[in-house]
């Protein structure tokens, strides 16, 4: 007689199965719930024709909260005509499927965001970190900046899902513009200048700031605290915690410091705030 054995498994003994993390996406412009899926759209492939994100509905469980928007004929660059079945959130198109292939859902570029605008979705009394502040490998945080130039003073204007919008006194094409951006963001985030790296963005007015040694949550908390400070007459945010000590020195790149407080030209390249405090200590 063969020997028989009975094996009993419980949920506590079962191995953890990956892929159960859900991602919630909202319409970027209305803030309404658009879909919940197991797929992270940031890692989804792009369609070459229009840069939309390709979501495989057979590979990922997906719940859509969209309405039918009818069909539309699109002529591609190669001359082929494609029939799309559009999906809307409210009156805004956010995705489509191609006729004859319902397996793939194409999410339009820039249509959805994981950043919730609804106040009721705030957790623990705080705001979730927006997508413009993301964590990369090796402890690097990336901040997407949108820059207004020729403002009265450096300022943190707005934090949105897409960008951290700041103002600088220099023209965006000026050679000292990047130096002013780094100095201002250093005062906002509270890190050393060596922890910051500025990278070109999608256009002249958009740049990527790399911050090492801090998490996205820490960067966002410091920016949010600075934005919650005193506002100017145009509703712009704080210009930095240390500037309240020296209100006359609003443009604080190194060249401005040398001209304002009479420092020699040999000080070029040293951080403006460091030069300022050294100068103040030397004054009797």
Automatic annotation (TrEMBL):
PANTHER family: OS07G0295200 PROTEIN. Belongs to the UPF0235 family. Residues 20-119 form the STEEP1 domain. InterPro entries: DUF167, STEEP1_dom, UPF0235, YggU-like_sf. This is STEEP1 domain-containing protein. Signal peptide: none annotated. Pfam families: DUF167, STEEP1.
């Amino acid at each position: 007689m063969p020997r028989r054995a009975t094996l009993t498994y419980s949920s506590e003994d079962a191995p953890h199965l990956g892929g159960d993390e859900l991602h919630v996406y909202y319409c970027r412009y209305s803030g309404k719930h658009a879909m919940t899926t197991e797929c992270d759209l940031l890692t989804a492939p792009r369609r070459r024709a229009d840069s939309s994100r390709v979501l495989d509905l057979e590979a990922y469980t997906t719940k859509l909260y969209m309405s039918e928007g009818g069909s539309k004929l699109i002529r591609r660059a190669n001359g082929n005509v494609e029939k799309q079945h559009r999906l809307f959130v409210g009156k805004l198109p956010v995705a489509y499927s191609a006729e004859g292939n319902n397996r793939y859902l194409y999410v339009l570029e820039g249509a959805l965001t994981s950043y919730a605008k609804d106040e009721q979705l705030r957790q623990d009394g705080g705001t979730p970190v927006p997508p413009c502040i993301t964590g990369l490998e090796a402890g690097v945080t990336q901040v997407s900046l949108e820059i207004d130039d020729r403002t009265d003073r450096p300022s943190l204007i707005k934090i949105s899902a897409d960008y951290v919008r700041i103002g600088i006194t220099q023209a965006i094409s000026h050679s000292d513009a990047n130096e002013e951006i780094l100095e201002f963001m250093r005062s906002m985030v509270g890190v050393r200048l060596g922890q910051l790296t500025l990278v070109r963005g999608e256009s002249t007015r958009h740049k990527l700031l790399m911050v090492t040694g801090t998490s996205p949550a820490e960067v966002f908390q410091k920016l949010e605290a600075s934005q919650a400070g005193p506002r100017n007459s145009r509703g712009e945010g704080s210009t930095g915690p240390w500037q309240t000590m020296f209100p006359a020195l609003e443009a604080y790149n190194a060249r401005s410091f040398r001209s304002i407080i009479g420092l020699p030209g040999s000080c070029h390249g040293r951080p403006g705030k460091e030069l300022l405090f050294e100068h103040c200590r030397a004054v009797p």
